[in-house]
Design brief:
- The protein folds into two domains: 249 residues, Aldehyde Dehydrogenase, Chain A, domain 1 (3-Layer(aba) Sandwich); 181 residues, 3-Layer(aba) Sandwich (Aldehyde Dehydrogenase, Chain A, domain 2).
- The longest helix is centred in the first third of the chain and has 25 residues.
- The chain is built from 14 helices and 20 strands.
- The protein is of the alpha/beta class and 460 residues long.
- 40% of the residues lie in helices and 20% in strands.
- It binds NADP nicotinamide-adenine-dinucleotide phosphate.
Length: 460
């Protein structure tokens, strides 16, 4: 795979990068391992100082970094600025709170003393996707640097400038060489690298295929792994929902990040008594979106991240229609340069449709009308994925009861699935395992070491 910046709004190649050689990678791994031996001895104050500086630099460079994101993967520039702001919040949050999350856990054994200490494990490999080029990195890196681990980061091949910029920011923040290293390599090489004895753990955010490849290598070489994979979040609208609010959030939930979001609302499931009213308003709002250049502040829907992604989703819509689904809106590429796709609504999607169980990674909503709450829950759970989901109802206790029955890692009431620095993020089923963010995320790549003072004098 070539490592290139291609502006998806024009499909023009902006810059081409040379992949690192095996020798370059070996040197980077050696440096990261050597830096770990020093970094693990630093105190939390020192680690926090660097992360706060990274946060400050992100804020200072917000405009230029946001433009870089938009150039490389096409999200609206205002959303890209939001991503930089969120990434800075994540660095600050873990700088401030990780020490508390990692404090010794004092146990209360039958006799004597015991505690669990949270120690770093070493060099970690992070494999990250293009859809949130800074946020995805921040949520993996900030907690782990506070733990005392060091990071090798293989970023997606379509966002090389973002990958390099993050490494530069660490340098500027005064991080020791080897604390954070950007690897300009292919996904295949990243999988091979998992076998390297100096690497102690690996985390991938991306597709099931990428995740399976990394997890297989991690399993073979007995290494800890965390996977954040795809999703097909259900967006349930119960009969007592505020329809106007539900429609507003449905549009945002589907087209945020041009529809390329793991936690985007993808399957809209409305109880039949309110389904026609919801669907009409949802369709009208999607049809009215301003489509155009993502650098332009007036644009509401930009291109997909690449020409390949646009071809893929247009083909997926065609396969859906060939398989019996009906097009209520859109369904075609937009006739202009760039990787644009019309906002699309599919109905009549039945389980025998070849794409029924697939994730739609773009501005394509699949709509279902169901008899009642129970049918909505059954349909929501009829998915190989288990990332997020939403329930819209004005009865919060009812919302919580429904949430309890949805088989995913996150369920939001009256909001699409979302993320923030202090809440855990992750899924079940085909959406992966492990968590990022919050106390749970901090504790993924630590050695939970038991330290015991025994009073036993008799071994039996
Ligand atoms: P992808 O192809 O899996 O790419 C993600 C990363 O994995 C890239 O760095 C990629 O490198 C690398 N990669 C690809 N194949 C690999 C392999 N066989 N071995 C090792 N590394 C490999 O994913 P994508 O299609 O670009 O991203 C979209 C997917 O990510 C969607 O399914 C989305 O839902 C999911 N996602 C999940 C989350 C979450 O938190 N759960 C967040 C964002 C996205 P190259 O670019 O060099 O191929």
């Amino acid at each position: 795979m070539s490592i290139q910046t291609i502006n998806p709004a024009t499909n023009k190649v902006e810059k081409t990068f040379t992949e690192m050689t095996e020798q370059d990678v070996d040197k980077a791994v050696a440096q990261s391992a050597a830096t770990f031996e020093e970094w693990k001895k630093t105190d939390y104050k020192k680690r926090a100082e660097i992360l706060h500086k990274v946060a400050g630099l992100l804020r200072a460079k917000k405009k230029e970094l946001a433009k870089m994101i938009t150039l490389e993967m096409g999200k609206l520039v205002a959303e890209a600025e939001g991503e930089i702001k969120l990434s800075a919040e994540i660095f600050d949050y873990y700088a401030k709170h990780a020490e508390g999350f990692l404090a010794d856990k004092i146990l209360n054994p039958a006799h004597g003393e015991a505690l669990v200490r949270h120690s770093p494990i070493g060099v970690l490999l992070g494999v990250q996707p293009w859809n949130f080029p800074f946020y995805q990195v921040a949520r993996f890196v900030a907690p782990n640097i506070m733990v005392g681990n060091t990071i090798l980061l293989k970023h997606a091949s379509i966002v090389p400038q973002c990958g390099i910029a993050i490494e530069e920011i660490f340098k500027e923040a005064g991080a020791p060489v080897g604390l954070y290293t950007n690897l300009l390599i292919s996904g295949k090489k990243a999988t091979t690298l998992v076998s390297d004895k100096r690497i102690k753990g690996v985390s991938l955010t991306g597709s099931e295929a990428g995740g399976a490849s990394i997890a297989a290598a991690a399993g073979k070489h007995l290494k800890k792994s965390v996977l954040e994979l795809g999703g097909s979040d259900a967006f349930i609208i119960l009969e007592d929902a505020n329809i106007e609010k539900a429609v507003e959030w449905a549009v945002i939930g589907r087209i945020n990040n041009n529809g390329e979001c793991c936690i985007a609302s993808k399957r809209f499931i409305a109880v039949e008594s309110i389904a026609p009213a919801f669907l009409k308003s949802f369709k009208d709002k999607l049809a009215a979106l301003v489509i155009g250049d993502p650098m332009d502040a007036a644009t509401q829907l930009g291109p997909l991240s690449s020409e390949e992604a646009a071809v893929q989703i247009a083909d997926q819509v065609k396969r859906a229609v060939d398989g019996g689904a009906k097009l209520l809106l859109g369904g075609e590429r937009i006739d202009r340069e760039g990787a644009f796709m019309q906002p699309t609504i599919l109905t009549n999607m039945l389980p025998d449709n070849p794409v029924y169980y697939e994730e739609f990674f773009g501005p394509v909503a699949v709509f279902f009308s169901v008899k009642d709450e129970q049918a909505a829950i059954v349909l929501a759970n009829d998915s190989p994925f288990g990332l997020g989901g939403s329930v819209f109802t004005q009865d919060i206790e009812r919302g919580k009861r429904v949430a309890d029955q949805i088989d995913t890692g996150m369920v939001f009431i009256n909001h699409p699935t979302w993320t923030q620095a202090d809440l855990p993020f992750g899924g079940t089923k085909g959406s992966g395992y492990g968590r990022e963010l919050s106390e749970l995320g901090v504790q993924e790549f630590v050695n939970k070491k038991l330290i015991r003072v025994s009073e036993l004098t008799d071994p039996f």
